[in-house]
Specification:
The chain is an alpha/beta fold. About 60% of the residues lie in helices and about 5% in strands. It contains 23 helices and seven strands. The protein has helices at about 5-10, 15-30, 35-50, 70-80, 90-110, 115-125, 130-135, 140-160, 165-180, 185-195, 205-235, 235-250, 265-270, 280-285, 290-310, 325-335, 345-365, 375-395, 400-420, 425-430, 435-445, 475-485, 520-530; strands at about 55-60, 60, 450, 470, 490-495, 505-510, 515-520. The strands form two sheets. Strands 4-3-5-7-6 form a five-stranded mixed sheet, with helices on both faces. It has a two-stranded antiparallel ribbon with strand order 1-2. Helix 2 (about 15-30) runs parallel beside helix 19 (about 400-420), helix 5 (about 90-110) packs parallel to helix 8 (about 140-160) and helix 10 (about 185-195) crosses helix 15. The longest helix is centred in the middle third of the chain and has 27 residues, at about 205-235. The protein is globular and about 75 Å long. About 40% of the residues are buried.
């Protein structure tokens, strides 16, 4: 193994461990969460099952909401290890680990300080939001990889004009578009277009934008290798969707998740926990404003947040690729701190004590009714663990800042594991394997399985289905279909307090705070007759 790689692994072994340990636990113990994870697994499964590796499929139809890279990675996993569920969470985890090395390299490029670079990797890995998101089957951690590759190229090009950096930028833009569409440009273009604010004057000229334009063209060229055959084979509707819907409609005029312009602001401190409460991470920001590297990262992060705030569609996880900017800013600030370090442990110790006390209180109020879908013993074990964690942080007195940073990071790992303990029973309410297997069995018996409202493919991979479900959007559609078909079963999602006669359903299971029901033919009549006149069928929410 080359010396440089050995050195990198040695310096990053703590943040690597912080991500890998929960990743293994998540892969072994947690179900795949509807509707996002199960939807994307379902799309990948239909691609695999139908040998449709150019055009993604959902419920038998072309799926245009997302590009194919994540689905290709899932199919690659099955090609290497066979169709399985156990290895899939390691795909985003691998990219999460790569992101640590990229953050480390960007920090070295900006400040040539290994301590700052190590702080940046440790802080990123131990942000609770990033830590928990690193093993989720979604696009954001993978997109963050391409964003970091692109920004590393931009920083390198600002320091040394070489064609290779613009090629790297172009490939990263193309990879980002293949991951989640043109939204990658929101993370990359602000810092590149505002180069005149941070690139040294002697290195900046109008040619900067010409080279940037070349990189964008290279990125488009990368995407065209997939886009052209997909547009030719996917049909007219799919062609319009991927050529237009993925750009103007989804970025500027989103149909879902519309939020006010300020919506992200209160979420940012939450996403940065526990480092939000770590004073050295913020104390030096004002005096670092003239630092060229600090200014560059600030423009990168602020530009992305501002653009996302202006877009109509907002989701918390859209900020995951922005978290590396905060880790870099915090790392630079922490490196400036002089004097006794131990005193800075108190706010984070207090956080864990507060969380533990809050959970204990919630488990006691009205005999735990606030947590009715959780196991109260698991909650109390987690709460006790958080109190112990806070107490340990209070008692330990690290003498140096590196030791304190390590202590805070390890505490994040412990907090994450306690979170998994406390939520174990609730998480199992998201496991759709039982009803997915019931769907497979009914289809094997020749039944048409109907779904109330939009079907997000949540059963397809879990049961390895090869037949689509029939989506019926209204009670009238259900009634009309039932009148013309004999062997049918209907899936809906009902309040968990609603009593249902066992004779009315083939299968029922708890699901989230509701119950998923597969109605018999007679049960469908009961479902339609008991539903209020103005009530439409309940469906699983769309979180895409």
């Amino acid at each position: 193994m080359p010396q440089a790689i050995r050195l990198l692994i040695r310096e990053l072994r703590l943040p690597i461990a912080i991500l890998v340990i929960p990743g293994i636990v998540l892969a072994l113990l947690l179900p795949y969460f509807p509707v996002d994870e199960t939807r994307y697994l379902g799309v990948a499964w239909e691609m695999w099952n139908n040998h449709s590796f150019i055009v993604p499929l959902q419920n038998g139809l072309p799926y245009s909401h997302k590009p194919p890279l994540l689905f290709w990675l899932l199919n690659l996993d099955w090609l290497l290890f066979g169709v399985n569920e156990g290895t899939l969470r390691f795909i985003p985890l691998i990219f999460s680990l790569l992101n640590l090395t990229l953050v480390y390299r960007i920090a070295l490029k900006l400040w040539d300080d290994r301590q700052v670079a190590r702080y940046a990797a440790v802080i990123l890995a131990s942000m609770l939001s990033y830590l928990l998101w690193s093993s989720v089957i979604m696009f954001d951690v993978i997109l963050a990889f391409w964003v970091l590759v692109a920004v590393l190229a931009v920083v390198s090009a600002a320091q040394e004009h070489r064609l290779a950096w613009y090629l790297q930028l172009g490939v990263a833009i193309g990879g980002g578009i293949l991951t989640k569409g043109p939204v990658v440009l929101v993370y990359v273009l602000p810092v590149a277009l505002l180069g005149f604010l941070w690139v040294p004057r002697e290195r900046f000229s109008g040619k900067w934008y010409a080279w940037l334009g070349l990189s964008i063209l290279i990125g488009i060229g990368v995407v065209l290798f997939w886009l052209v055959p997909a547009a030719l084979t996917g049909g007219e509707t799919y062609r319009r969707a991927i050529l237009w819907g993925q750009t103007v409609n989804r970025m500027a005029n989103s149909f879902a998740h519309k939020r006010p312009i300020w919506w992200y602001l209160p979420w940012i401190p939450t996403l940065l926990m526990p480092w939000t409460l770590f004073p050295p991470a913020w104390r030096a920001w004002k005096r670092l404003s003239s630092d060229p590297g600090f200014k560059m990262v600030l423009i990168w992060g602020a530009g992305s947040v501002v653009v996302f705030s202006l877009l109509s569609g907002k989701q918390v996880h859209y900020l995951i690729p922005v978290l590396p900017t905060f880790s870099l800013l915090m790392a630079r600030s922490v490196a400036e701190e002089q004097g006794e370090a131990a005193r800075f442990r108190f706010p984070i110790a207090g956080l864990y004590l507060f969380l533990g006390a809050g959970l204990i209180t919630a488990s006691l109020i009205k005999h735990g009714k606030l947590l009715k879908h959780f196991d109260l013993m698991e909650i109390r074990i987690a709460a006790a663990g958080l109190i112990v964690l806070g107490a340990v942080l209070f008692m330990l007195r690290p003498r140096t800042m590196p030791a304190l940073v390590n202590q805070v990071a390890v505490a994040s790992l412990a907090c994450c594991l306690l979170f998994l303990v406390g939520g174990n029973t609730m998480f199992q309410r998201y496991d759709l394997h039982p009803i997915a297997e019931a769907v497979r069995q009914k289809q094997a018996e020749g039944y048409q399985v109907l779904h109330t409202g939009k079907y997000h493919g949540q059963f397809h991979f879990l049961a390895r289905l090869s037949q689509p479900l029939v989506e019926l959007r209204s009670r009238d559609e259900i009634r009309a279909y039932a009148a013309t078909h004999d062997k049918i079963a209907l899936i809906s999602y009902e309040k968990d307090t609603q009593p249902i006669d066992p004779k009315s359903y083939y299968f029922l299971q708890p699901f989230r705070s509701k119950q998923a029901v597969m109605w018999t033919r007679d049960g469908i009549a009961t479902f339609l007759g008991e539903a209020p006149d103005k009530k439409e069928p309940t469906e699983a929410p769309d979180a895409e």
